[in-house]
Amino acid sequence: MSIVETTDHLNDIKDGMNYESPIELIVGEMEHQIADKMFKVIQSYDIKVDKDELIKALRYDRQQYEKGYKEGYNKGCEHGAKYSEICGAELEDYNE
Are 56 and 37 part of one and the same domain? Predict the structure, then answer.
């Protein structure tokens, strides 16, 4: 097999196995641990909450924060682009 064929074959295997990179696995585990700890802290204050709903709310909150940050960054770059080279790259490039 050529290098291209081998790479394509490996990508097919990864796709079939729902491959996740080691970093994705670590980040996923960290998110799980953080959610568990937050749930325990909330319970320690005798606040009754469904764990799955709490996790959904925290993810939604994070997405809203990232969306607002991105919009603010881009707006600042529009206004300050004449005076600064900091905004040379789009925020999408910065965050991904």
Answer: no
Domain span at residue 78? Answer: 50-96
Averaged pLDDT in 10-residue chunks for the chain of 96 residues: 55 63 86 90 92 88 88 77 55 47
Asked if 1 and 9 touch (Cβ cutoff 8 Å), the reply is yes
Cβ-Cβ contacts under 8 Å for 42 (sequence gap 6 or more): 49, 54
On whether the CB atoms of residues 91 and 73 are closer than 8 A, the answer is yes
Tell me the HSE value of 39 on the side-chain side, using a 13 A CA sphere.
Answer: 15
Prediction pTM value: 0.49
- What is the spatial distance between Cα 23 and Cα 55, in angstroms, rounded to a whole number? 21
pLDDT of residue 22: 85
Cα–Cα distance for residue pair 67/39, rounded to 1 Å: 25
